[in-house]
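Me: I hope this is not a bother. Any chance you could explain this protein sequence and its structure tokens? It all follows right here:
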Amino acid sequence: MIFFENEFAQINYLEDAKTVEMVWKQTTSSQMYRDLFAKGVEALEHFQVANWLSNTTDQGLVAPEDRKWLETQMIPTAIRSGLRNIAVVVSKDIFKRYYVDNVRKYVEKSHLSMQYFDDTKEAVQWLSSVDSSGLARPA
């Protein structure tokens, strides 16, 4: 179900996985980057879920100050809104890996569970298998 969409990203609710999904379409301005994450947190609160899936394959480069803002402002806000598990679909691009690795270092300090994936299907399977603490649900 589409929660929000513009030319830069689409935010979906994946009901079966109880997940908010953000699919980036292209590089954004700093303000749009921040506005889209705020919209994503609004979706977390609206659907009352603990899972986030970010497909960064087509996101483009993210400025260091925006990454820092994500870590210091947006992730703590998302945690207060119930975020516990993050799945990221990333491209093989070295610059994107660097960005995601830096975010991951911060996320691990925040006691969130975060995993990387090559495709959305694997990411959704993982998010469907974890509980709100990031641990695998019993079979």
User: Anything to note?
Assistant: The chain has four helices and six strands. Residues 30-47 form the longest helix (18 residues).
